[in-house]
Specification:
The protein has 132 residues and is mainly β. 11% of the residues lie in helices and 59% in strands. The longest helix has 14 residues.
Length: 132
């Protein structure tokens, strides 16, 4: 987990001066802090941190919308730590609040943990972030 935090902190620090990042809260799995770093118009990193559950995702925004203004579908793979290290796949929906630097999101993920025996779990979360 320390490596994930160090890697994410480094990524946010490198790109921080470009004002392409957001921070906020997330409720669900995990309940804690949330971060986002925009890479380009299509890709971004997302991060969730809590005391016992953390993840880092690499996401793609879907070119196909859902027909709702200011709403984006995203998906991507990631890494997760809970009791052990694992991989995850995420599907989410993000809503940019008009004339605001806030956005809300909801996502569902399937986590696969690599330990003595494989363990899977399906998790969901909602949250909000402020874009700097």
């Amino acid at each position: 987990m320390k490596k994930i935090i160090l890697l994410t902190s480094t990524l946010f620090a490198i790109n921080g001066y470009a004002q392409n990042y957001a921070a906020g809260i997330v409720l669900g799995a995990p309940t804690g802090l949330s971060g986002k770093m925009k890479i380009n118009d299509i890709n971004f990193f997302s991060l969730g941190l809590s005391g016992n559950y953390s993840y880092l995702n690499y996401n793609w925004k879907s070119k196909e919308g859902i027909g709702v203004d200011n709403t984006t579908v995203y998906y991507g793979p990631g890494i997760v730590t809970k009791k052990s290290f694992g991989a995850r796949g995420t599907l989410g929906l993000e809503y940019d609040i008009p004339k605001s630097q806030f956005h809300g999101f909801g996502e569902a993920s399937v986590d696969l943990y690599f330990s003595d025996d494989f363990d899977t779990s399906a998790v969901a979360a909602i949250g909000a972030r402020y874009t700097f």
